[in-house]
Amino acid sequence: MDKRKLGQTGIDISPLGLGTVKFGRNEGVKYPEGFNIPNEAALADLLALAKDLGINLLDTAPSYGTSEERLGRLLKDQRKDWVIVGKAGEDFEDGQSTYNFTPDHFEMSLDRSLKNLQTDYLDVLLIHSDGNDMDILANEDLIEKLYDFKRRGLVRAIGASTKTVEGGIMALELLDVVMVAYNPAYIDEKPVLDYAAANNKGALIKKALGSGYAANVQEYLKFPFVHPGTSAVITGTINPDHLRENVAALPL
Fold it and tell me: Cα–Cα–Cα angle for 129, 133, 138, nearest 5°?
């Protein structure tokens, strides 16, 4: 699988990334069917398969239950083989999400993520928006904190996982990378991809398979790559067969 540039970050990524919410959380998720969290032996096999298939991009977050801690154990001695996208701003405890977008919280959250992941840097750190994109991105102290992380070598690139067109475009104006929802049944955030393509910024696609509701996986996986602004698609699976099928469906 040929690698692609993530905008102007200098980071090379596989066009398909593996989302890891199912590695550590099965409460309060929006998938069509419930699932059991796999044991770490099964996850080790899944990550080995992903690597064999050419995937080097992993997406995680503090709100993904024990995902970070498990990845930290599973990726020991493999750190250089992976591009890790992390987040800050949302935590999930006792079945509820809480949000905090203060610079101090981001400092604590990043420190915790690095310890959980057993690494000294993240490749990408995204603001995990609650939907109030413009208010969050207008916080100059928070934006400065993200740039401070870059200067200190704690992250290689910064961005936001947004929920609005205006927020997505503002994230790309201020930062390196955006993560947006985009699939054949939801094209509202296409203007963000248009901006990314025009300005050579990184754009990661979430909910490419409609959180598991895609009518046709092959069609849904091909769709985002028709747009030149798409850097990579993140899909979350714990099923080896589904992972193989997703890779086979890529139009690349």
Answer: 120
Residues 6+ apart with CB under 8 A from 242: none
Considering only CA atoms, which of 38, 37, 117, 115 is closest in space to residue 71? 117
For residues 211 and 185, is the Cβ–Cβ distance under 8 A? no
**pLDDT tens-place string over residues 150-170:** 999 999 999 999 999 999 999
Walk me through the domains of the chain, giving residue ranges and CATH numbers: 15-249 (3.20.20.100)
Region class of 177: left (phi > 0), else alpha (psi between -120 and 50), else beta: beta
Tokens of 150: 């870059």
What tens digit of pLDDT does each residue of 65-102 get? 999 999 999 999 999 999 999 999 999 998 899 999 99
Phi and psi at 222, nearest 5°, equal -75, -35
Comparing CA positions, the residue from 187, 232, 227 lying closest to residue 205 is 232
Q: How far apart are CA 60 and CA 87, in angstroms?
A: 7
How far is residue 248's CA from residue 252's CA, in Å, rounded to a whole number? Answer: 9
The alpha carbons of the chain give a radius of gyration, in whole angstroms, of 17
180: nearest Cα among 205, 201, 213, 208: 205
Are the C-beta atoms of residues 42 and 252 closer than 8 Å to each other?
A: no
Q: What is the pTM of this model?
A: 0.97
- The amino acid occupying position 58 is L
Strand partners, 99: 90
Contacts for 230 with CB less than 8 Å, ≥ 6 apart: 182, 193, 203, 205, 224
